[in-house]
Specification:
Layout: H1 2-11, H2 16-26, H3 31-44, H4 51-72, H5 79-96, H6 101-104, E1 110-114, E2 120-123, E3 129-132, E4 136-140, E5 149-160, E6 169-172, E7 176-180, E8 184-189, E9 195-202, E10 205-211, E11 214-221, E12 225-230, E13 234-238, E14 245-248, E15 252-256, E16 259-260, E17 265-266, E18 275-282, H7 283-294, E19 298-300, E20 309-315, H8 319-329, E21 335-337, E22 343-345
Parallel strand pairs: 5-6, 19-22
Antiparallel strand pairs: 1-4, 2-3, 3-5, 4-5, 5-8, 6-7, 7-10, 8-9, 9-12, 10-11, 12-15, 13-14, 16-17, 18-20, 21-22
Helix pairs in contact: 1-3, 4-5
GO molecular function: sigma factor antagonist activity
Keywords: Membrane, Transmembrane, Transmembrane helix
Organism: Pseudobacter ginsenosidimutans
């Protein structure tokens, strides 16, 4: 079984039951077998932690599992054998599940988050792969991959979903519900922004819009299409009565995903390649993106700058370098950094 499961781990084609069985098998291995398994995993998994990392991580894992064992009356494995099992489990779960927390507390909500200035790649328990953008949170349902595959999103995530017709993958945001069987797409739904955007790269997704009275309509997107939903508009519903009634409506439109010919880049998903792309954006929008991207506060004090348009693409550049490039295109722009790290554009 060992070689077979290692091959499945290498290709990502394994089940949670197979993984658990493999971890149980590790408990009965001798030192030489354990080292052989470790070396095989090290070779087939490019992100497999080194031995020092696994040792450090296993120490914390051992503390957590000791608490769990004592609470549940489990038989405790002692000595080097115990450490070896925990270390193996730690490095496996660190790579495969994005953290031991997923398995130590399976009945809890599982939350993945990326702070401002960072981006994370995570494999979900169902085998789907996601990339989480700065300042974003993805919460899995309590029964994720058991009875459903539902998640709640605040922010922006690129999804590459493993197909499962019996359990469609559903993303809940403030303004919409996105349903998919198996495909690759991007959803941008930051609470601070006035719009939500679902962009389809391949496959098919169904988008339903949330209103005050529930879900409305079913919009099917084709590859290289995106749906833009306005979260904040209000329109008059009834002008026949003396006092016009207003209800919160969320207009939406389907548009094409934009490929910037200058950079030869799909604008909506460039961030997943660690590229910061501005495509005819106002400086106000660009400042918000840079603040999120670098995790540094940026403030525009000159109102005449806010609606100026800018286009540019950057990969691996510092905030200072990006501002210098923008200043080259917009000579009237000046900027300075305060002692507290705040950047002011004026």
């Amino acid at each position: 079984m060992t070689d077979a499961i290692i091959e499945k781990i290498a290709t990502g084609n394994y089940s949670e039951e197979e993984l658990r069985a493999f971890l149980e098998e590790l408990k009965d291995m001798n030192d030489d077998d354990y080292k052989a398994i470790y070396n095989k995993l090290y070779k087939v998994l490019p992100d497999f932690p080194d031995r020092q990392m696994s040792e450090n991580f296993s120490m914390e894992m051992e503390k957590q599992l000791d608490k769990s064992d004592s609470m549940n009356g489990a038989v405790v494995i002692t000595g080097w054998r115990k450490w070896r099992y925990y270390a193996a489990a730690a490095v496996l779960l660190l790579v495969l599940a994005g953290g031991i927390y997923l398995y130590l507390q399976p009945d809890q909500h599982r939350v993945f988050a990326a702070r401002n200035g960072e981006r994370k790649s995570v494999r979900l328990p169902d085998g789907s792969q996601v990339i989480i953008n700065s300042g974003s949170t993805l919460s899995l349902s309590e029964d994720f991959d058991v009875t459903d595959r539902e998640v709640t999103l605040e922010g922006e995530v690129y999804f590459d979903i493993r197909s499962n017709e019996k359990k469609p993958f559903i993303i809940h945001t403030k303004a919409s519900e996105v349903k998919v069987l198996g495909t690759a797409f991007n959803v941008r739904a930051y609470p601070s922004e006035e719009t939500e955007v679902a962009s389809l790269v391949r496959g098919a997704i169904q988008v339903r819009i949330k209103t005050d009275t529930g879900l409305s309509g079913e919009y099917l997107l084709k590859p290289m299409q995106k749906m833009i939903i306005n979260k904040t508009s209000e329109v008059e519903k009834d002008k026949t009565v003396q006092v016009a009634k207003k209800t919160r409506m969320i207009p939406a439109r389907i548009d094409s995903i934009h490929v910037n010919k200058i950079f030869d880049e799909v604008v909506e998903t460039a961030w997943t390649k660690n590229k910061l792309v501005f495509d005819n954006e106002t400086l106000l929008e660009a400042a918000a993106r840079m603040q999120q991207w670098y995790g540094i506060e940026i403030r525009i004090e000159n109102d005449s700058l806010k609606n100026l348009l800018y286009t540019g693409s950057y990969e691996g550049e510092t905030l200072e370098k990006v501002l210098e490039a923008i200043q080259y295109s917009i000579p009237m722009l000046k900027y300075k950094m305060e002692n507290n790290g705040l950047y002011i554009l004026y």
